[in-house]
Amino acid sequence: MLRTDGFPFLITAPALIVIVFIVIVPILTAIMISFTNMDPQNQNKFTWVGLNNYLTIAKGQGIAGQAFWHIFGWTVVWTLLASTLAIVLGFIFALLVNNERIKGKKFFRTVYLLPWAIPAFITIMFFSIMTSRGGIIANALNSLFNISLDIKNNTFQTRATLILLQGWLGHSYIFLLTTGVLQAIPKDLYEAASIDGATGIQRTFKITIPLVLFQIAPMLINQYTFNFNNFSIIYLYNQGGPFNPEVYGNLAGSSDILISYIYKLTMESQYQAIGAAITVFISIILIVISYFGYKNSSAFKEY
């Protein structure tokens, strides 16, 4: 019986074991730690505290919870603006490059794919240096517009730069996806629409956008969930700064998002319990958003 009926179970058992230890065990561990008082004073001997950590977060109290809602608000703004900018740029560039009247398509396709081809951390560190005091970009902007910019020490300027930088880094992936879909759309559809009197804008909104969204909607949802937890760009660019202790305390900066805040809480300051509670909180948010996003996408409805 094992060699016949049990064969599929034997084949899938190694993958199941890996999933248990890599995915399920860490999740369960984080959930359990979130109900304890594990902090810098209770590393070895910590006790169960029930929902205290979650109440602290909800009320915005304590040394680790006072900055939570400020960071959560910025995380939502960051996710929406950075992801939307990347999607819009990628889609527009794909439309331009796939236009029959555009010359040098290979050159433009190469340029638009460079941010995706080059490791992101190199680009992030490069822009971090250039936008610092005395950096090339900072000096150029100060000379051109006769204004004094201090990008990495100003909250608004840092946040705006991060959004623009992620839009540049993320648009290549959208450009690649959109280009593949555009090349697969039959030209007969556009010819029929032209015969019926449809303008270029009407063809774009009635044919191109619906067909593209139908194909890549799940990947677009992934862009939002990815940027919600995009640790690398936040930490590498300015380590979450600039810092404002009056609002964020000593554990976070004004450009920190929840994932970088969790890193600072757990790895740098040893507030594992409150960090685990925030992790559970954002995991629930992402699960709910992803579920309804995928459920309502046309691609998942059809298949």
How does this structure look, described?
Helix 2 packs across helix 14, helix 10 packs antiparallel against helix 14 and helix 13 packs antiparallel against helix 14. With 303 residues, the protein is an all-alpha fold. It has 15 helices and no strands. The model has no long low-confidence stretch (mean pLDDT 85). Helices cover 74% and strands 0% of the residues.
Give a nutshell description of this structure.
With 303 residues, this protein is mainly alpha-helical. The protein has 15 helices and no strands.
Work out the strand percent.
Answer: under 5%
Structural classification: mainly alpha
Radius of gyration: 24 Å
Report the span from N to C terminus.
35 Å
List the defining traits of the structure above:
single chain; 303 residues; mainly alpha; 74% helix; globular
Give the SSE layout.
Layout: H1 7-33, H2 52-59, H3 62-65, H4 68-97, H5 105-117, H6 120-130, H7 136-145, H8 155-184, H9 187-195, H10 200-228, H11 231-238, H12 245-248, H13 258-268, H14 272-296, H15 298-302
Helix pairs in contact: 1-14, 2-14, 4-8, 4-10, 5-8, 6-11, 8-10, 10-14, 13-14
